[in-house]
Amino acid sequence: MDVELRQLRCLVAIVDEGTFTDAALALGVSQAAVSRTLASLERALGVRLLRRTSREVTPTGTGLRVLAHARRVLAEVDDLVRDATSGHAHLRIGYAWSALGRHTVAFQRRWSRERPETDLHLVRVNSATAGLAEGACDLAVVRRPLDDRRFDSAIVGLERRLCAMAADDPLARRRSVRLADLAGRTLLVDRRTGTTTPDLWPAEARPATEETHDVDDWLNVIATGRCVGMTADSTANQYPRPGVVYRPVRDGEPIAVRLAWWRDDPHPAAQAVMELLTALYREA
Q1: Which of 176, 139, 92 shows the shortest CA–CA distance to 260?
Q2: Degrees (nearest 5) of the Cα angle 88, 89, 94?
Q3: pLDDT at 87
Q4: What is the CA 12 to chain-centroid distance, rounded?
Q5: How many other C-beta atoms lie within 10 A of the C-beta of residue 26?
């Protein structure tokens, strides 16, 4: 037999109110209904949860443990209901490595000023959909196309492609680099979320690659001089790091910044976010 929420609410009410009579009043049911509901919960679990005397009702040792779980479950359900019914009042925007670079603060401030009724939260999730598929966000900023047909996306701006290298790298003395300058180097890439693959180079001149899955690890390895990296301009703005410098890649195509959302359940604020981000990138 499955445990039902009404049974857990009944158990909590009995303990909190102190008697079956008061629990019935709090729940708006009869005392007999409270007794039946508690009995059905005890049968479902196969344990006794409460000791009942003429003077008081107290949980058994097992009852105390079940009661603690019941409180947590009911609190989670309440949170779920609030989140589902007030989705318009909260907006979570996911991103994998960097949010919006130098536009991040401007976006947050303008959103707060122009849309105070909708709380904005930026959430970093290092996955291909920046948390969208995992349910960690309502909208996502991604920098490569999403092949999953469950999602729609739109380009809101373009960012320069930069090379990240150790500060004492010979290439760091240059104001910019070319793809050919990196052909003999080892390129550190994140295949899940990154925008750079060896396909940017001709087949006969592709760099060797190593893999990483986190921006901090990426920067730490690059600082040693063992590898170089390639990334969007936003990463340099969001993650300045001693020992690492960024240089524009002159012949590297710009990186498209996309806003993504669930195709069948877009957040009500999706259009407003898209318009604001597009305006910010155009103002740059």
Answers
A1: 139
A2: 80
A3: 53
A4: 33
A5: 16
Closest CA to 213 of 192, 244, 232: 192
57 beta partners? 52
Closest CA to 162 of 218, 88, 80, 226: 218
Contact 251, 179 (CB under 8 A): yes
CA distance 174 to 30: 81
Is 231's pLDDT higher than 70?
A: yes
Q: Is the pLDDT of residue 65 over 60?
A: yes
- Cβ atoms 212, 188 nearer than 8 A: yes
Decide: helix, strand or coil at residue 112: helix
Give CA–CA dist 100/35, Å, rounded: 57
Instruction: Return the amino acid letter for 105.
Output: V
R_g (Cα) of the chain, nearest Å: 28
Tokens of 227: 């590898």
Coil/strand/helix, residue 60? coil
Range in 83-92, 95-104, 227-236, 274-283 with the lowest mean pLDDT: 83-92
Q: How many CB atoms lie within 10 A of CB 66?
A: 21
pLDDT at 248: 97
Which two structure tokens, joined as six digits, stand for 27?
A: 């729940």
Segment 21-62, tens digit of pLDDT: 999 999 999 999 999 999 999 999 999 999 987 778 899 999
Look-up of token digits 């469950």? 150
**Residue pointed to by tokens 């809101």:** 156
Mind listing the pLDDT tens digit for each residue in 143-156? Answer: 999 989 999 999 99
Dist CA 259 CA 277 (whole Å) = 9
